[in-house]
Write a structure and sequence with these properties.
alpha/beta, 7 strands, 2 domains, 40% helix, Rossmann fold
């Protein structure tokens, strides 16, 4: 049957098909129209340079494996604080009670605020000290996200407003400058789940980690 089908193709069509297979182009086309990357919306996020799913809805700029692990464990009564606002702010807002984010870039802040629902608060703090300490203005949170500037410094402040059952979400956790912070968190009883792989927009893999203690709000 295969030979029969091929015999009906013109020589130029056969040549194009063979070239596509040898170059890998046919595989790329197949992946674009089906498969995990297509289902996750990677092609759309790369094309638009926005962290979105295949339908254009906001996605955290975390690795896909971390987002998949995290989403079913979120609850409507949770409160989230983010160091670094973005598409994750909008994503959390659809799944939890409230989200507070601190951001240093006024233009980016306006972009997020223009899309944010009422249960989001995005704070502008251009000064480094004020940025790190912004979390002090609030009661404890269930999740504290480390995904902006001054990450190592933000952890200490973040812990001061982390609920006893709360967890940390740390993006780009494979950066070597964070090793000392992880050692300190381990001494405080935190364990670390590492999620490495692809995520929205980027062609390179990276790592997002969840740091948790026993009896945590995610049930890990």
């Amino acid at each position: 049957m295969k030979q029969e089908t091929q015999s009906k193709l013109s020589p130029s069509a056969l040549w194009a098909r063979r070239l596509a297979r040898r170059s890998g182009l046919s595989s790329l086309v197949a992946m674009h129209f089906g498969g995990a990357l297509s289902d996750a919306g990677w092609y759309r996020s790369f094309r638009e340079s926005r962290s979105v799913d295949r339908d254009g809805e906001a996605q955290p700029w975390y690795t896909y494996s971390c987002t998949s692990f995290l989403e079913p464990r979120l609850a409507r009564d949770m409160r989230v604080f983010e160091y670094g606002a973005g598409m994750s702010t909008l994503w959390y807002a659809q799944r939890v009670e409230s989200v507070v984010s601190v951001e240093h870039d006024p233009d980016w802040l306006r972009s997020v605020v223009n899309q944010a629902p009422e249960n989001c608060s995005v704070l502008l703090r251009t000064d480094a000290v004020e940025y790190v300490r912004a979390i002090r203005e609030f009661d404890p949170f269930d999740l504290v996200v480390i995904d902006g500037l001054h990450r190592s410094e933000s952890v200490s402040e973040g812990l001061s407003r982390l609920d006893p059952r709360g967890v940390l979400i740390w993006d780009n956790s494979d950066w070597p400058e964070f090793i000392d912070s992880y050692a300190r968190l381990e001494n405080l009883g935190f364990r670390r789940l590492e999620f490495r792989g692809l995520g929205p927009i980027s062609r390179q893999s990276w790592e997002t980690s969840i740091l948790y203690r026993p009896e945590n709000c995610l049930g890990i």
